[in-house]
Recover the amino acids of this structure.
């Protein structure tokens, strides 16, 4: 049988060990990863994880109420199953979709926009035209490569110096297409741009010349559709070039009314979902500084508990105050530790002599 003192000692050791385990073991959590182009879960050069992370950081400065949902939501199934409370407070983002949308999904997106929702579509050679046709607007993505004599590295990386919207920005594109039939273009190419119809990376007689519309805003019913003919400006290795980031987040701030709308990310149409995997990521390393502080605090607390120091210090203070206040004509004559302890025991019989003796031994 263990004595009461030993049981208490082992309890203290157990508590301390539990604290140490939580401090020293790294926190390991599952993390969703995906290799598909334009995926929010792709941290590689061709993913859009940086865009969505910065978007979420910007949203934290807004006034969005998180009540029934999250600001940023990922859709990996049928997009028509999104439970939208209010279209006015929602924006659906489709970047680089390659998989065709079902008729049910097209009808859902049409109703969503007509009811006041905002739809952002960034596409070049993908499947977005089916949505635009279903909604009934004239705008289309040409699915043709736009090249320009004003470029960085090569003509397939054209530079947009100005537009009819947010003109202070200079954009760097990456194998863009263009928008046909835009009634309200936001960004256009230079006049030296051309459509490389035969994909030989050079201008040939008869190929259409610029300027071409690169982005446009379309008002539909009570909602609107924002079209961008180069999804690559959102990817991790392009978003930080020239003014791409500033332009994108200025646009997102407007589309979300100051980050006060719920954002749904279409991951379902980036190809198959077979490339989605869960990996374990260490998100917190051991904090040795914190451990030292907590260990010191634990030892101090243990000392106070075991020596009853708080009660003794309080009693000594009361005794001193009593002597000062009521014993003006008396002089403290007790100098022997034993006599002092006996005197204190008369006032506080519940105090243990061994604890008092241990306490006063520190003041030799």
């Amino acid at each position: 049988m263990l004595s009461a003192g030993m049981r208490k000692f082992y309890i203290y050791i157990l508590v301390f060990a539990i604290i140490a385990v939580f401090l020293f073991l790294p926190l390991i959590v599952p993390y969703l990863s995906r290799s598909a182009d334009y995926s929010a879960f792709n941290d590689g050069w061709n993913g859009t994880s940086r865009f969505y992370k910065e978007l979420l950081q910007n949203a934290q400065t807004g006034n969005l109420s998180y009540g029934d949902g999250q600001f940023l939501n990922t859709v990996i199934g049928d997009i028509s199953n999104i439970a939208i409370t209010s279209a006015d407070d929602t924006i659906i983002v489709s970047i680089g979709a390659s998989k065709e949308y079902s008729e049910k999904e097209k009808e859902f997106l049409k109703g969503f926009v007509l009811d006041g929702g905002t739809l952002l579509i960034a596409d070049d050679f993908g499947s977005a035209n089916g949505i635009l046709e279903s909604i009934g607007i004239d705008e289309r993505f040409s699915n043709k490569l736009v090249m320009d004599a004003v470029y960085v590295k090569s003509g397939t990386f054209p530079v947009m110096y100005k537009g009819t919207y947010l003109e202070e920005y200079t954009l760097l594109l990456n194998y863009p297409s263009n928008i046909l039939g835009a009634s309200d273009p936001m960004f256009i190419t230079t006049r030296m741009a051309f459509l490389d119809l035969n994909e030989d990376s050079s201008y040939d007689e008869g190929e259409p010349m610029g300027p071409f519309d690169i982005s446009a805003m379309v008002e539909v019913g009570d909602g609107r559709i924002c079209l961008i003919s180069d999804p690559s400006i959102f990817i991790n290795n392009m978003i930080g070039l020239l003014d791409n980031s500033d332009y994108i987040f200025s646009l997102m701030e407007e589309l979300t009314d100051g980050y006060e709308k719920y954002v749904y990310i279409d991951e379902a149409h980036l190809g198959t979902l077979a490339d989605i995997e869960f990996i374990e990521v260490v998100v917190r390393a051991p904090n040795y500084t914190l451990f030292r502080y907590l260990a010191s605090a634990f030892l101090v607390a243990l000392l106070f508990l075991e020596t009853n120091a708080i009660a003794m210090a309080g009693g000594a203070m009361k005794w001193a105050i009593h002597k000062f206040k009521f014993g003006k004509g008396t002089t403290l004559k007790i100098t022997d530790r034993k006599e002092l302890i006996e005197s204190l025991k008369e006032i506080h019989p519940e105090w243990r002599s061994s604890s008092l003796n241990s306490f006063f031994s520190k003041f030799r």
